[in-house]
Amino acid sequence: MPTNPREARPLEGVTVVDVTQVIAGPFATMNLGDLGADVVKIEAVGRGDRSRSIDPIPEYFDTINRNKRSIEVDLKSEDGREIVTELAREADVFVESAKPGRMEAFGLSYERLSAENPTLIYCSISGFGRDSPYGELPAWDALVQAMSGIMSVTGQEGGPPLWSGLPSGDLITSMYTTQSVLAALYARQRGIIDGEWIEVPMLDAAISWLSARAGHTFGLGEPFPRLGTRHPTLSPFGVYSCADEDIVIAAGTDSLWRDLCAVLGLEELREDERFSTASTRAEHHDALKTEIEAVLADGSAEEWVDALQGANIPAGPIHDTRSVWEDEHVKGRGLRRTLERDGRADAEVIDHPIHFSTLATELSRPPETLGESTADVLEELGYDDGEIERLREADVIG
Amino acid sequence: MPTNPREARPLEGVTVVDVTQVIAGPFATMNLGDLGADVVKIEAVGRGDRSRSIDPIPEYFDTINRNKRSIEVDLKSEDGREIVTELAREADVFVESAKPGRMEAFGLSYERLSAENPTLIYCSISGFGRDSPYGELPAWDALVQAMSGIMSVTGQEGGPPLWSGLPSGDLITSMYTTQSVLAALYARQRGIIDGEWIEVPMLDAAISWLSARAGHTFGLGEPFPRLGTRHPTLSPFGVYSCADEDIVIAAGTDSLWRDLCAVLGLEELREDERFSTASTRAEHHDALKTEIEAVLADGSAEEWVDALQGANIPAGPIHDTRSVWEDEHVKGRGLRRTLERDGRADAEVIDHPIHFSTLATELSRPPETLGESTADVLEELGYDDGEIERLREADVIG
Fold this sequence. Notes:
2 copies of one chain form a homodimer.
Chain A: E1 15-19, H1 24-34, E2 38-43, H2 58-62, E3 68-72, H3 78-90, E4 93-96, H4 102-105, H5 110-116, E5 121-126, H6 141-148, H7 168-189, E6 196-201, H8 202-208, H9 211-220, E7 237-241, E8 246-250, H10 254-264, H11 278-283, H12 285-296, H13 301-310, E9 315-317, H14 328-333, E10 336-339, E11 347-350, E12 355-356, H15 374-380, H16 385-393
Parallel strand pairs in A: 1-2, 1-4, 2-3, 4-5, 5-6
Antiparallel strand pairs in A: 7-8, 8-9, 10-11
């Protein structure tokens, strides 16, 4: 059996300097923090991460910034750059999401910082990376969803393309950022590399997710269509109305189809030629939906979900962002967590979703106010009270 | 500067036994393969990964199964289990996505395999993990999108919830799988753990992505609404019609708003009280859209994208899964790759999106036919031709 007597976290002792804002970078460094890294979040003096104001509620920021220490530093000042350089000198990881060229202008390029710290893993998130025809075009999530093809597959049949209600372009980028940093840390630990520069282009990251949807185009030459809540090749599969509310049923195999017919008392449909195979069922999806909904109309969503799940048929409610927290599984897991904060409202966050048998993840530090750890971090770097006061008066720090 | 004279990949020499199918597991192990791992994909004899038949085109499978060796093994037979056990004995990583309890029934539980190989990192993907009220309910992507709240935020205002056109529930799970395996490999390399069992529940993974959307609910007590292609707090931001086609414009800051007015010749709108601040612009989103589209009607989407991008305003086309490959950036990066295969059609795949400065990623092995490497892998385990023939005749292998 594996052992981990100290309940150590996988990134314990790893230090991350985080010069990112909004979602793509912060969600990635939050995951590094959950895994045990000590993350120092650099924020603009007096203004901070744009997500502190992009939405008028602080909970937006809170959901993606736990497990970080916030310090306010003006990167445009020489003293401010020196602070960040000192942090990078001791750090394992540096993550930034400025426009290409901006960190060079600040004197905080990979070349500069790796000269100070040859084992630094430096990760640059940007819309398109270097050498793109789109140059320094700011890449907002909406644009990435549009240009990557993600929007084109989302929406009703015959309707316009919609974007995913989640900031998928940002979040896909986050996941590749964390993955790449972990791969580089592992390679460094194995002695394969000293340090590394990693470039994460949002558009390229989003396009990688087209995967099987691109396969449709590679095989058939046609764009993958918008299908609302229909499945391209499986039925019954989608949204079905009960007496009160809609539910999802995903009976994607022949055996699930048979089980579904049994629960609904629709065994006669199994003899119907239109529904005899997966492909004919998909072809006659609308007719099949009508037959199924005629039965579902006799009961509530809750009753039908219980009956279907009781027969191990994948079916469930369509939760919204409020009802999901009342779900029995979600409550049992404690996925909604409250992190206590002194002197201000507690933070509501979502727990790290992965369970390790012996490694620990931890939500040890609630999201901080702007610059909450400025003095602490500077003291760790060796600045004394007088210097900190001088820097604060000069607006180098907040 | 970092060095990596051999152009080594971060997971070079790492071996992965992959007992997953469809998308969530295979996309994760594909990423491990891109990063250099040797992935052996275990498939059911004569049938294989369900994604070989879930869609009638082989390109579906191909887009998520490069960099793996396919072997056909019957896990229900004792000889088959012995083959998988022998592979796990030498492996670093084992990934499975069977229903909870199924691997135990096969004699391939974490307990059994870690007894043979105490340094094994064993990752279990399932819909809900152990100890869930949903028990062994099969978790299809559609169900996870519904139950997690992802669907609820996707769709037109006033319209029904839709799912993301990408299998987001599966792909989020994939990214957490890769991330967790890498974190455990790193922890093992550092001596923090011997081996590890990792549990990745799809529903929990998907819920973690609600992030800022959940923040809206935590702050305001209301479900996050469906907004079609409108942004909750920013405008101009969304889909706008030109003379021929729609484009996306994401002018999410005051300075982008000023730049946009200049390019469109709409400077007078900056004096309009309805549009003076971000929040009033969002409030009068429809009126602002009408003003903007009146100007955009004078030119084509291509002309306006050129003009807007030329002024560094985030704007671009809405690509579909066919047009995206004609994009100048996408072509320049070579994101659509052709992997040559002997004796059958070449495979079309999407390149790994991340660039390392010295570490390499590689698409070295095209997607294989079912059981293409069965004999090779068994020979590496020490089976001779006679044994392989006997196992094949007994349908233990394909």
